[in-house]
Amino acid sequence: MGNIKFIKENKEVIAADGANLRLKAMENGVDIYKIIGKLTNCGGGGNCGTCIVEIVEGIENLSTPTAVENRMLKKKPANYRLACQTLVNGPVSVVTKP
Known about the structure:
The protein is α+β, with helices and mostly antiparallel strands.
């Protein structure tokens, strides 16, 4: 079990090991999409790159970045992840819409 702290929203949610970051955010009313992302997101398939989040603590508690993430985020900071491709395995702090 791990807590996901959404910093901008001042919200903390509990997640079972292996929980998908995007789904946990959506289940708990945390909006991870900017305006364009709300209209064009791929629904969690990793194809659009609109669910980018910044990990400020606990990056070691996340799944290894997927090949899709490595391709989509190659010009972004190392602590940026696609929420739809990220599995949570411990406490983590997240900034949405970085």
